[in-house]
Design a protein that fits this description.
By secondary structure, the protein is of the alpha/beta class. Helix content is 53%, strand content 11%. It folds into two domains: 205 residues, Glucose-6-phosphate isomerase like protein, domain 1 (Rossmann fold, 3-Layer(aba) Sandwich), CATH 3.40.50.10490; 166 residues, 3-Layer(aba) Sandwich (Rossmann fold). The protein has a five-stranded parallel beta sheet, sandwiched between helices. A four-stranded parallel beta sheet has the order 6-7-8-9, with helices on both faces. Helix 5 links the parallel strand 4 and strand 5.
């Protein structure tokens, strides 16, 4: 198998939609975006909590936003987590739902409003229940963004029977960008659209640079896709993802999507069931993060395959993996990886993790094409009880 056209087209489609979002849709929401920054800043000034919530992959978007806010000194709680904090009057709920109609998300929002909390919504659906409940909404591209995208993107979409961007991929990846833009502006204490958009351009530029890196070594990509495709044959290996921080979240995003493909994905809670021939996908920008490296070394001892997603070709993870994809990362982030000390002067944005996320989404598109898996099939494997 040497065809990676669906991967290439999906990657280009996702980036092109996000470019259009930043250039044409974000300026139309300037007032809402600035107001959202002010709402969030006020929470810190008043020593209140920010609570984040969503269901499925929307929950991972919310957690990513929360992690970025924690990095710049906000008190953040994930509703439903073991150590979640009570929602109180004056707190802020950030609720994420692409459709805006997710029952549990709307119920949580109603309860937050009942106790006097404020609500910021990220949704792709103006006029939805969540949009109407929220004090303020920021709208991200939905599936309609594909039909509204430039002609070249629509051409790409028409070349494939299977979806390049299944289910909620477009709103989810762009909601991640919104969280990055808002936290970057708050960190720099420049609550303006220029700073917001600059950080998004940085993320997209790095993703495109990573794409070029991957294409220069596409044999590795092809072998990784073939390794994932083993899950549709008689071997049925187990797939495990490992990472820390937002890298872990990128893995969780993909684990859910792999499950939609019917691959046998297990969490690390089931690591004890690993066996020879199983696959570990290790994600680490530095390639030296302790937890991914420990799991990778144990996977090798267990005769598993290790697939590394990293930005450091001189790292332990890169060296011991069976196959690897090498990403680019931003200079300031690379400095942080080296010194291992957090410095407020380092404007951290998860450029590596975002590039990994887009890459995985594009790999899913290629696997779907290779095995003639349509969106309806994937939807049937989506969790159906909220």
């Amino acid at each position: 198998m040497s065809d990676i056209s669906a991967f290439q087209d999906a990657f280009k489609t996702l980036i092109e939609i996000s470019r259009d979002f930043v250039k044409n849709k974000v300026p139309l929401q300037e007032e809402n975006i600035i107001t959202a920054m002010e709402m969030i800043r006020k929470i810190k000034e008043e020593n209140k909590y920010i609570h984040v919530f969503g269901m499925g992959r929307s929950k991972l978007v919310a957690i990513t936003f929360g992690e970025l806010l924690k990095n710049i000194g906000f008190k953040v709680s994930v509703i439903g987590a073991t150590l979640s904090k009570p929602v109180r009057k004056g707190d802020l709920l950030i609720a994420v739902s692409s459709s805006g109609w997710t029952n549990t998300t709307c119920t949580v929002t109603e309860e937050a409003l009942r106790v006097g909390a404020h609500v910021l919504a990220l949704t792709a659906t103006p006029g939805s229940k969540l949009d109407r409940l929220a004090d303020l909404s920021i709208y991200v591209p939905g599936k309609s963004a594909i039909s509204e995208a430039p002609y070249i993107v629509r051409q790409l979409m028409g070349q494939h029977k299977t979806p390049l961007t299944p289910m909620g991929t477009v709103p989810e990846t762009n909601s991640v960008l919104v969280g990055v833009g808002i936290t970057a502006a708050l960190r720099e204490k420049k609550e303006d659209l220029k700073t917001f958009s600059k950080s998004l351009d940085l993320m997209l530029n790095n993703a495109e640079n990573s794409f070029r890196n991957i294409m220069e070594n596409k044999d590795e990509l092809i072998q990784i896709i073939e390794r994932f495709s083993k899950g549709f044959g008689r071997e049925t290996p187990r797939y495990y993802f490992v990472g820390t921080g937002i890298s872990k979240i990128a893995g969780d995003f993909t684990a859910i999507r792999f499950q939609h493909l019917s691959l046998n994905v297990l969490g690390l809670d089931d690591w004890r069931f690993r066996s020879s021939g199983d696959v570990l996908i290790a994600i680490s920008g530095s390639g030296e993060s302790t937890i991914p490296v420990i799991y990778a070394e144990e996977a090798k001892r267990s005769n598993m395959y290790v697939l590394a997603f990293t930005a450091n070709q001189n790292s332990v993870l890169y060296r011991i993996s069976d196959n690897r994809l090498l990403f680019t990362d931003i200079i300031k982030r690379e400095l942080y990886e080296k010194i291992r000390v957090w410095d407020d002067q380092i404007n951290y944005v998860p450029a590596f993790e975002y590039a990994v996320l887009i890459t995985f989404e594009s790999i899913v598109a290629q696997i779907a094409k290779n095995h003639d898996i349509g969106e309806e099939y994937m939807q049937n494997l989506h969790a159906n009880i909220e």
